[in-house]
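dumping the sequnces here before i forget
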Amino acid sequence: MTEKYIARSRAVAARILDAEMIIMSATDSTLFTLSEVATVIWQAADGRTPLSQIVRQRVCAEFDVCLDDAYRDAEAFAEDLAGHGILRISDRPILDETSGPRVHL
Amino acid sequence: MQNLNQKALRLGVPLSVHLDVTYRCNERCEHCYLEHDDRGEMTTAEIRALLQQLEEAGVFFLTLSGGEPLVRRDCFDIIEYARSLQFNVKLKTNAVLIREREARLLRSLGVEQVQISVYSHRSEVHDSITRLPGSLRRTLEGVRLLREHGLKVSVANVLMKSNSADSEGVRAMAGELGAHYMLDPTITPMIDGRTVVLQYRAAPRELASVFHNSQLVGNVEEFCAPPAPVDDDILDGLPCSAGHTACYISPYGDLYPCVQFPLACGNVRRERFLDIWRDSPQLREVRSIRGKDLDTCSSCSHLGTCSRCPGLAFMESNMRGPSSADCEKSFVRTGIPSAQMMAPASTVRPSALRTLVQIQFTT
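..and the predicted 3d for all of it:
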């Protein structure tokens, strides 16, 4: 299995509301509401931690789900968000795309 | 979005905050509701601390405005910090100070939208309203640069006597620039309550012309349709989001329910934002009001569709009363007088009577 890495885009707004993450893309203004499980994955998407590790250490540890199913769902979730430009997926660590915006004034 | 608002309402979360970072401005628009002197704006550090508090309170939508926000030297520091806290940032500006560098920065910071005031497609009209020669040219250059960098731009066209013939021209120009167009027919009294700027409001005849123009309002039949019967949902409904899921903070830290609703609820320099938001007696009063509690308006057929602004009502007389400007709009739109217009003359306030006389004269 090829390892996958996921990183949050800087071009989004995000806030937790009642345990669910709301995200809006600055690119197309689409509003997403993430479930509790998806919120955990989103928060762990630092570009450095492999998706398999996120699923094993965060999702399976906090929710009663089987590892294979959880990984499959996490992959689909990541690809869906990547399709909207609010998450980046790579087979290598992503070191330039996490946390808030950075500019050189 | 409706679900998000409902959830925020249920949880008591201030989903949207409008923060004016300065009242200073490089234009002197004739209808502006602000005084532009600096009476001691919040410092960069104070605003950063406030933004942290807003994040902790769950604020998601942050509108940064003024005055002209870009006259603050630290404006981009403020925006950058707000974006690092993952607010959805909308910037309201006249774009006069936006050049290549500013457009690039706004894009790289992930600002969601920039709203820009344009009064006319003709410089002689726009510049005479802003009282800044060359302002239309510079504003449009700003719009063009922002669009080139892929930012969403909304052109806000405030309708007044002096530009009422220009709405279609501004809409067409916005379209050519790839900007969204929005028409705002509201001139508000000055934030200190003075009404001198109301002389610039468009007259009913001019409002009617705009409200019956499909290029500007879409489906005229739908827009101008008589109001649906008032039911219990409308009577139990909230007048607007001000004080419920939204509020306004001035450059001096004063917190109001809305920028158009200058009811002082507290000051974030002296109290924590959340303490004011949760415990202010003024906000509690605003939140207690339902459609059925409104004086006169509760018996008005327009209650469910009127654009009634509780802030304008507050400035006119009281927050539970009618707003004459909105009565006028409902009447001009549908041809059906509001309950306030039908009230016996002795109970109609002088300002409302003036509106009534004006409408009768022009129709």
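Residues 350-363 of chain B have pLDDT under 50 and may be disordered.
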